[in-house]
Automatic annotation (TrEMBL):
Keywords: Oxidoreductase
Keyword Acyltransferase: no
SUPFAM superfamilies linked to this entry: ALDH-like
Superkingdom as given in the UniProt entry: Bacteria
Active site: E270
Name of protein: Aldehyde dehydrogenase
Family the UniProt entry places it in: Belongs to the aldehyde dehydrogenase family.
Domain Aldehyde dehydrogenase: 31-493
MF terms in GO: oxidoreductase activity, acting on the aldehyde or oxo group of donors, NAD or NADP as acceptor
Keyword tRNA processing: no
Length: 497
């Protein structure tokens, strides 16, 4: 099969001058500096974007604050939900344009862009739309003395926290932005988004659709630029009440520290990890391999919840790695714009270099590279999907997040050893157990230190189910009703009558 034809609207959008989206208007900003957007499948520049500075940060934060106290505060909860629903409709109506743009910028295979970046984003918006009218407090019986017959009552209100700064990574530039935006807007907050400098384009188009959906100006703003240049200005801005961040642990720590130091600003940090997938001995080899492919290799492994440490019963190890090598060698690697592509390039050059250095590290430490471990010839940032057999739990690839298509494998003998190896990490975002013995899986689940545990599946998220990390993998939860606590402040009101 060959590449799909790019829509005219995609080509036209790429040719525009890009900058920021503030108070309902696309602007270029005051800085002269631009940065390039590189198509990771070709290594070629496809657009440029103006770098933001203090002026754009201030303009966006002021616009978000004015909308928070003005138009958005005057929009009823039901109408806020209607706005999110109309935006979902428009995402679907413009689905192909958004998916093509995203695949060009991120290297995501087009089918995944359609399904996750657009389809799932619309579902998340619809889920959050329902919550906008269901955010409630509690009432209380008060035990204060009544000397002259006076009575008391008390209740709590959940009030929107204010202007939220959303810092977005490059792996799901629409969907993760929608997670933050949906939660903020449903709660009555307004938002300033800072996309990744690698993938800043598609969300600019989404902001235009938000205006078409009737979301008032200033409710959604976007400032583009490098994190190092504008990250701290956004966090320290007096109008910033909360920061919601998804990205690496290292940057998440900087963001969290800075938010605390800048006046105990609230944070939701969804960080990386070194997620484990464990297969119990009752699983047949074929099923184990299907599970590994689902858990570790979708979208080149560039999913924060994906598994990178694979624990296999020693009796199955050789057969599993042989079959997995066969399946990886049959995988169709190629253009993200080819509908039959199963694996595209890594998302950017810096990440590609990091993955190549991880291959080297594995070799230096004497790990066996069972399959892959090299860059593919030709243009673009392509690498082979890779299988590494670790020597021990101490190997770098059993401990450091690669965020790439590298599964690292270790065998185990018994359940106790397995649980202790799974938990021996400073991270705790997700884990999976694969077995037909449900009672064993349920007993083991309660001992796993992770914010999300799957049984016989991995990586799938649903807007109704809270998502977030234990330990160094984060603070706070997205989705479910759990998000409400993180986007509202609790106010207690007591009345004497
Ligand atoms: O991520 P960062 P990068 C991992 C992955 C990758 C590595 C680096 O292994 O190779 O991180 O990728 C903004 N203040 N993950 O550099 O730094 C930045 O501009 C405020 C895992 O892209 O975490 C971007 O918008 N913001 C991960 C966002 O933070 C700052 C997803 C994320 O960038 C900032 C992505 C600062 N000082 C990468 N510095 C996951 N697990 O989900 C940067 N940023």
């Amino acid at each position: 099969m060959s590449e799909i034809n790019l829509l005219e609207s995609v080509t036209a959008f790429l040719q525009r001058s890009h900058g920021h989206y503030i108070n309902g208007v696309s602007i270029l900003g005051q800085e002269n500096e631009t940065f390039s957007i590189i198509n990771p499948a070709s290594g070629e520049m496809i657009a440029t974007v103006n770098q933001g500075g203090e002026a754009e940060v201030d303009q966006a934060m002021q616009a978000a604050s004015a909308a928070f106290h003005g138009a958005w505060a005057q929009t009823s909860p039901i109408e806020r939900g209607n706005c999110l629903n109309r935006l979902a409709d428009l995402l679907l109506k413009n689905s192909e344009e958004l998916a093509q743009l995203e695949s060009l910028c991120s290297g995501k295979p087009i089918q995944l862009s359609r399904m996750l970046e657009v389809g799932a984003s619309a579902d998340y918006l619809r889920y959050f739309s329902g919550w906008s009218s269901k955010i409630t407090g509690e009432t209380f019986n008060v035990s204060l003395p009544s000397l002259k017959g006076e009575k008391y009552s008390a209740f709590t209100r959940r009030e929107p926290i204010g202007v939220v700064v959303g810092i977005i990574p490059w792996n799901f530039s629409i969907m993760i932005a929608i997670w933050k935006l949906g939660a903020a807007l449903a709660s009555g907050c307004t938002i300033v988004l800072k996309p990744s400098e690698y993938t800043p384009l598609t969300i600019l188009r989404v902001a235009e659709l938000a205006k078409e959906a009737g979301i008032p100006d200033g409710v959604i703003n976007i400032v583009n630029g490098s994190g190092a240049r504008i990250g701290s200005s956004l966090i320290s801005h007096p109008q910033c009440a909360k920061v919601t961040f998804t990205g690496s642990v290292a940057t998440g720590m900087i963001v969290g520290k800075s938010a605390l130091e800048q006046g105990l600003k609230r944070t939701t940090l969804e960080l990386g990890g070194k997620n484990a997938a464990a297969f119990l001995p009752d699983m047949p080899v074929e099923k184990i391999v299907d599970g590994i492919l689902e858990a570790g290799y979708v979208y080149q492994g560039q999913i924060c919840a994906a598994a990178e440490r694979f624990y296999i019963p020693s009796v199955h190890m050789d057969a599993v790695l042989t079959l997995l090598s066969e399946r990886l060698s049959a995988m169709k690697i190629g253009s993200p714009l080819d509908e039959s592509t199963e694996m595209g390039p890594l998302a950017n050059k810096a990440h590609y270099d990091k993955i190549l250095s991880m291959f080297e590290k594995a070799r230096k430490e004497g790990c066996e590279i069972v399959y892959g471990g090299y860059a593919l010839e030709g243009p673009g940032f392509f690498v082979a999907p890779t299988i590494v057999k670790a020597n021990s739990a101490e190997d770098t690839l059993m401990n450091e997040e690669t965020f790439g298509p590298i599964g690292t494998f270790l065998s185990y003998e018994d359940e106790e050893e397995l649980i202790s190896m799974m938990n021996a990490t400073p991270f705790g975002l997700s884990a999976s157990l694969w077995t037909n013995d449900m009672s064993k899986a349920m007993r083991m689940t309660s001992r796993i230190e992770a914010g999300f545990v799957w049984i016989n599946m991995h990586t799938f998220l649903d807007p109704a189910v809270p998502f977030g990390g234990w330990k160094s993998s984060g603070i706070g939860r997205e989705f479910g009703s759990a998000f409400i606590e993180h986007y509202t402040e609790l106010k207690s009101v007591m009345v004497r009558y």
